[in-house]
Amino acid sequence: MYIGRTNNYGYINLNNKKGANNSFENNKNINSIPSQDNGSDENQRKALKEVEDLNAHLKKSEAALKKARESYDVQLRCAIIARRIISGHKVPRPDYIYLAKNDTDLYQKSIILRQERENPLKHKRISPYEKDKYSDIQRSDMQNIDKEGSVK
Q1: Interatomic CA distance for residues 55 and 43, integer angstroms
Q2: Can you tell me whether residue 151 is helix, strand or coil?
């Protein structure tokens, strides 16, 4: 069975070899192309509104992700500092203050569980530097720690 040349997509065939008599049919085909009406404008407005809503949702998600990442970083630093304290190593004073400021329960537990070592390692500071020098932490919170990081 021969199918021949079919025009499945509704394209206008300008290379018509049958002759000039079919020019009327060509004009008829041109006029029969469906024109875009107001429905397409409404669809475009709906699509643009949906894109704007998705962008707003994306910005909210990015903010939540950033907040969660910062919280994770604080928890990780606190866990590292607590592990160093519990193992009996010398920890810088700002790290003690950072732990006490951000996780008081972990700070208390790490002080209680601290082990004494003969040759403790001396660690560098891992807490971030702050301009205010921890002004909200009172010195009474840190009275039991001397300058070297050992418990009195």
Answers
A1: 18
A2: strand
- CA 86 from chain centre, in angstroms, equals 33
Sites in the chain below the pLDDT cut of 50: 33, 152
The type of residue at 141 is D
Give kind and range of the element (H or E) at residue 72: helix 38-86
| Maximum separation of any 2 CA atoms in the chain, in Å | 109
Per-residue pLDDT of 30-71, as tens digits, reads: 555 455 556 688 899 999 999 999 999 999 999 999 999 999
CB 102 within 8 A of CB 73: no
In angstroms, the CA 34 to CA 55 distance is 33
- Residues near 124 by Cβ (< 8 Å), separated by ≥ 6? 92
The pTM (predicted TM-score) of the whole model is 0.56
